[in-house]
User: Fold these one by one.
Assistant:
Number 1:
Amino acid sequence: MNAAEIRAALPQRHPLLLVDRVTSLEPGVVIETVKAITATEPCYAHLGDDATAEDYAYPASLLIESFGQSAALLWLDGSAPSHRLTDDAVLLFVGARDYTVEGRAYPGDVVRHVVRLERVVADTAFATGESWAGERRIATVGSLIAARRPRAAVAEPAPGRTGTGADRTIPANTSAQGGRHVR
């Protein structure tokens, strides 16, 4: 799967589209993806001329986001055509359990994610895996949980919850997720 195919499959857009290429895929079972890290990543824009090499460690939050996007590619590719992501649905990152960062990645590194789909239950997917920088394992994920829900169900406030911010939606194309999430 190349960059154009990845972009077509995921709702994320620059600067949060964090998968560059799929190197192997066994639909519904396992995927390997890569993300090349460069010194021009937006996460480094705030660094001054006095930044140290350690200041360029790739943020763990972006590492897990890249892993999650890889998991979404695996899940969606293994779905029946009628279950694939559409404009009427949103993909939600529910959470991660036992996420352990064991090392760091830096500009010049190519991060490789190995993601295994454990199971899918009622439009909720469970995945596990690890992230590597070269031959160094830099993170493990005990369980990543994602859900696909109808956009209308997610955009509606819970009954009786008004004035708390629960009734606000973010207009399309303004969120960090390419306009595909609400809060």
Number 2:
Amino acid sequence: MTEPLNTPLNPSDTSIPSIGLIVVGDEILSGLRQDKHVPAVIERLKARGLSLSWVAMVGDDRQYLADTLRRSFATDHIVLSCGGIGGTPDDHTRQAAAMALGRPIVRHPGAMELIRQRCEESGQPLDEFRLRMADFPADATLIPNPYNRIAGFTVNRHHFVPGFPVMAWPMIDWVLDTLYPHLHHRSVEHKKALRLFNTPEARITPIMEMLESRFPLTRLYSLPSVGDDKLARHIELGVKARGGEAEAAQVEACFEALLQALSPLAAPIELL
């Protein structure tokens, strides 16, 4: 009988932690394969009212991966990690996670049982190579893999899944829906933006700094464009915040203040 899988973590904690993504593999950094995980994770988070705070792409270097994980384990972030949990010599993620935590690698009985079931179904031998994929840092819990039963694992709000999208993405869906349903749609992104034409960023930087100081719940952003045959050179300039009524009110107030501050520049503006 398999060990029970994860249960929701701290459902009474309704704060929204930062969410990070680690993509592991030399093939991504060399260009042999194009990363697909970043847009897929952004899409999955957005569908649940969440957002991605940072991304790290790491090659198949056990020590560097351990150093990366050691830094993220020191935070309260939720971290999704794709890749490097197979059984071949270039798969280092499980060992790197154990190194970062200072824990031993142990063979998980629940993962072993799932591998045994998979081997029985497929007619493959239950050999040491396959059993290696049940080796996780001590105290890890399982992430079910609906594709082939070879589980991923969770430890310290870090969730490790394979690099294959057909496996990784349903497993990430399971993590988000099983462990963090209490975080879904807890806050709304409020945003107002405009296009400012034929104005260098240097002229608006002091305005942005002043407004962020006056409206601390908001963030201002600028996306410059050299223009094309449809739009002249411009900057998409906006105010955004994630939260409730207080954040929405500050976005409105900050945007009005932005319009007033831009008025002396006498530059064309298009509201978005």
Number 3:
Amino acid sequence: MRAVVQNSFGGPEVLEVVETERPRPGAGEVLVRVHASALNPVDIAVRSGMLPLLGEPPFGLGWDISGVVEEAGPGAGFAVGDEVFGMPFFPRAASGYAEYVTAPASQLARKPAPLDHVHAAALPLAALTAWQGLVDGARVKAGDRVLIHRAAGGVGHLAVQIAKARGAQVIALAGAARHEFVRGLGADEVIDYRAVDFAEAVRDVDVVLDSTAQGDRSLTVLKPGGVLVTILEHRDDALRARSEAAGRRFAGISVEPDGAALATIAELVEAGRIRPYVEETFPLAEVAKAHARVESGRTQGKIVLTV
């Protein structure tokens, strides 16, 4: 089978498409014939060596997959031919940029019927990050005021929709060129973070979803008892202490596989409450170009590899 590997840290050029042996599923696992695999900023950080999650190369990148079950191990719970999607093994290697991937069945869910594989692959890591932050961490409920950083990005555009599905009022931070897109997702108020200081413009919110490492500034807009959900600063014990001293709750999020949550997210997709946005697709052979596109920092929604 074809798969992407890297033998050294570096830029997009270190990614190579090679022929390798097809994996076999163990007990409780399935072999997925991958139709699409999405990219995430963490992929860039791991490839470059900035975030050494996988140790030293060689290794294969990629976690978000959507495809069809080719083979099922004992007790897997899925049948050959089932369409599934998920984020297996994170933060361990899943080698999702490949024609075939093995995955624990418990970390997958049935693909939402309205979505093709490209759009289903765009969901898992970003949607689970938003879900685990807003639902599991902050327990967002109807009537809450929620501020979302980078609301047009991979996590952000799904977080807006998840918060709205929970009945929240959403204040979204996005560049002016993205305002129409973010309003179309359901945001109640959109602020151009380049022209306006959000810490001056926003007050008394119940939850902030911060994916920008601006935890201390985000704290200033929270009402007493509000929740700071932070992705990049999730291990910052000093920020946690400052949050608690200010009478705010700290919820650091490091996304984990969760097939049950994916199934709930799939139900929201099927009900028309969530729709992933894919800005561009690349064939597997152009994985380096796809990485360069994500690394530009100017993407709206997700970038996906077609396999």
